[in-house]
Amino acid sequence: MKNVMEDIVAEKLDEVIGTLGCCTCEQCRSDIISYALNRLKPKYANTELGAALAKVDTLSHQFEVDVLTAIYDGAETVSKNPRHAKA
């Protein structure tokens, strides 16, 4: 069983992390993904075909806006409260 949303959020974060103006260390990246996933509806699949079909459902413009909003909100929150030592 796999939450396909995990891959979708991680891939989208990789695309936009350079524009977020936040720390890009693994701890902050992981925290941003966790924040976003907790605000998005999960998409579970238990086969490769199911995972592919779940990803097809994500092609709408509104879905992308929802994912990006969760990521941007997560980056802002994590930047204000990083769980690592500030440099």
Describe the structure.
- The chain has 87 residues and is mostly helical.
- The chain has one domain (2-80).
- It has four helices and two strands.
- The chain has helices spanning 4-16, 26-37, 48-56, 61-80; strands spanning 2-3, 44-45.
- It has a two-stranded antiparallel ribbon.
- Helix 1 (4-16) crosses helix 2 and helix 2 (26-37) crosses helix 4 (61-80).
- The longest helix has 20 residues, at 61-80.
- The radius of gyration is 14 Å and the shape is elongated.
- It starts with a strand and ends in a 7-residue tail after the last helix.
- The relative contact order is 0.24.
- The model has no long low-confidence stretch (mean pLDDT 91).
Tally of distinct domains: 1
Number of helices: 4
Q: How would you spell out the order of helices and strands? A: EHHEHH
Distance between the termini: 39 Å
> Main sheet?
2 strands, antiparallel
Spatial strand sequence of the major β-sheet: 1-2
Q: β content, as a range?
A: under 5%
**Structural class of the secondary elements?**
mainly alpha
User: What's the assembly state of these chains?
Assistant: single chain
Low-confidence stretches: none
Which percent bin holds the helix content?
Answer: 55-70%
From the spread of the alpha carbons, the general shape counts as: elongated
Mean pLDDT: 91
Rg, alpha carbons? 14 Å
Report the strand count.
Answer: 2
What key phrases describe this protein's structure?
elongated, 62% helix, 4 helices, two-stranded antiparallel ribbon, 87 residues, mainly alpha
Helix and strand arrangement:
Elements: E1 2-3, H1 4-16, H2 26-37, E2 44-45, H3 48-56, H4 61-80
Antiparallel strand pairs: 1-2
Helix pairs in contact: 1-2, 2-4
